[in-house]
């Protein structure tokens, strides 16, 4: 069985390190290189004791290690140059970096198609979180009021989270009109959070949390709460492995794992 040759972008980061540990245990995946802007050219040590080349620039690793897939967890401003270089080198892209603009996503789709290549980008690889969004979409048909509260570790750069926005968009699309949101006459407007299609979105950033989201629906005499709690970064690994195995079967950009999971 030939193994899928994978390189990791953002390899020194929290997600990069967890992805290296998870993928290096897979019998059908071979980690062949690593990239991180803050690492000088050299080697990266894998959990099994092997070392692979490491460089600050992905194009060096594309040319020397010939990966088939690059898995990226870095920053949003790195994604366009990375995608361009990947497709030019015949490398497919799997990215979980959040905060990527809709314009950048369109450009990645265009570039991937031009090069007969593909990308899977997902703002959340935790399968439980995707099921949460799916359930929230169903509940959106039956409730007029909704709030989303998301909580993340203190180092998360963007707010609200990509998952909170994706959830709110899915709920509003399913409902076909904004949720009801009573006008606040007194007090401080900020205390109600960000308003999106009538949904209030609240964000907390603090140590002790990886990622957590609760969608709360309200109706006369009842509430429905749908909650997902990511206790450790391991929760993202099954989704990332699925994307690595599926990306070569796609064309252009697949945004989100929902279709791959049949949700
Ligand atoms: N989609 C998901 O399921 C999911 C889950 C967790 C985190 N994330 C996202 O993943 C991203 C990374 O998160 P993290 O917690 O690992 O952050 P981190 O800061 O720990 O790691 C990011 C790494 O990327 C490197 N980097 C930055 N710019 C680069 C560039 N131009 N080229 C190469 N390397 C570069 C940094 O040096 C750093 O080592 C964030 O956008 C975060 O929101 C997504």
Largest sheet: 8 strands, mixed
Rg over CA atoms, rounded to whole Å, is 20 Å
Q: Termini separation (Å)? A: 30 Å
Bound molecules: nicotinamide-adenine-dinucleotide
Order of helices and strands: EHEEEHEHEHEHEHEEEEHEH
Strand residue content: 25-35%
Helix count, DSSP H or I runs of 4 or more residues: 8
Question: Can you say what the CATH homologous superfamily of the largest domain is?
Answer: NAD(P)-binding Rossmann-like Domain
Strand order of the largest sheet: 3-4-2-1-5-6-7-13
Q: Assign an overall shape.
A: elongated
* Proportion of helical residues: 25-40%
What name is given to the CATH topology of the largest domain?
Rossmann fold
Polypeptide structure, described:
By secondary structure, this protein is α/β, with parallel strands linked by helices. The protein has two domains: 4-121 and 234-261, Rossmann fold; 127-231, 2-Layer Sandwich (Dihydrodipicolinate Reductase, domain 2). It contains eight helices and 13 strands. The strands form two sheets. It has an eight-stranded mixed β-sheet with strand order 3-4-2-1-5-6-7-13, sandwiched between helices. The longest helix is centred in the middle third of the chain and has 14 residues, at 162-175. The mean pLDDT is 96. Residues 9-10, 12-16, 35-38, 73-75, 78, 96-98, 122-126, 156, 236 line the site of nicotinamide-adenine-dinucleotide.
């Amino acid at each position: 069985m030939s193994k899928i040759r994978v390189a990791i972008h953002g390899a020194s980061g929290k997600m990069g390190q967890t992805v290296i540990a998870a993928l290096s245990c897979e019998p059908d995946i071979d980690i062949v290189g690593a990239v991180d802007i803050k690492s000088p050219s050299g080697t990266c040590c894998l959990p099994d004791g092997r070392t692979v080349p490491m460089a600050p620039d992905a194009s060096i690793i594309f040319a020397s290690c010939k990966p088939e897939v690059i898995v990226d967890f870095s920053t949003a401003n790195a994604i366009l140059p990375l995608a361009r270089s990947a497709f030019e080198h015949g490398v497919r892209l799997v990215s979980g970096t959040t905060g990527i603009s809709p314009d950048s996503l369109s450009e990645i789709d265009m570039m991937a198609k031009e090069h007969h290549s593909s990308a899977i980008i997902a703002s959340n690889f935790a399968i439980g979180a995707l099921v949460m969004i799916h359930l929230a979409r169903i509940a959106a048909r039956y409730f007029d009021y909704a709030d989303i509260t998301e909580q993340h570790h203190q180092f998360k750069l963007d707010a609200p989270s990509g998952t909170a926005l994706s959830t709110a968009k899915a709920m509003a699309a399913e409902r076909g009109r904004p949720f009801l949101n009573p006008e606040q006459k007194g007090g401080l407007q900020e205390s109600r959070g960000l308003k999106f299609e009538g949904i209030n979105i609240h964000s907390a950033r603090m140590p002790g949390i990886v990622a957590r989201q609760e969608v709360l629906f309200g109706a006369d005499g009842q509430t429905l709460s749908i909650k997902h709690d990511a206790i450790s970064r391991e929760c993202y690994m099954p989704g990332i492995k699925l994307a690595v195995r599926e990306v070569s079967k796609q064309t252009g950009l697949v945004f989100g794992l929902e279709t791959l999971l049949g949700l």
